[in-house]
Amino acid sequence: MRSFLRFLTPLAFLGLLPLVASEVSGRSATASAPVSRGELRAAIQKGLDFLLASQDRTGWWSTPEHPAVTGLVLTAFNLAPTPDHRTRSPSELARAYDFLLGSVQTDGSIHRGSLKNYNTSLCLIALATAGNAKFDPLIQQARGFLAASQIDMGQPGTVDTPFDGGVGYGSKYQHSDLGNTLVALEAMRVSERAERPVSSQNGTDLNWEAAVNFLQSTQNLPSHNPAEWVSRSPADAGGFVYFPGNSMAGSAKDSATGRTALRSYGSMSYGGLLSYVYANLQSDDPRVAAVLEWLQQNYTVDENPGMGAQGYFYYLHLMTKALTAAQIDTLKLKDGTRVAWRDQVARKLLSLQRADGSWTNPEKRWWESDASVVTAYSVLSLEKLEASF
Question: Do the beta carbons of residue 124 and residue 187 sit within 8 Å?
Answer without folding.
Answer: yes
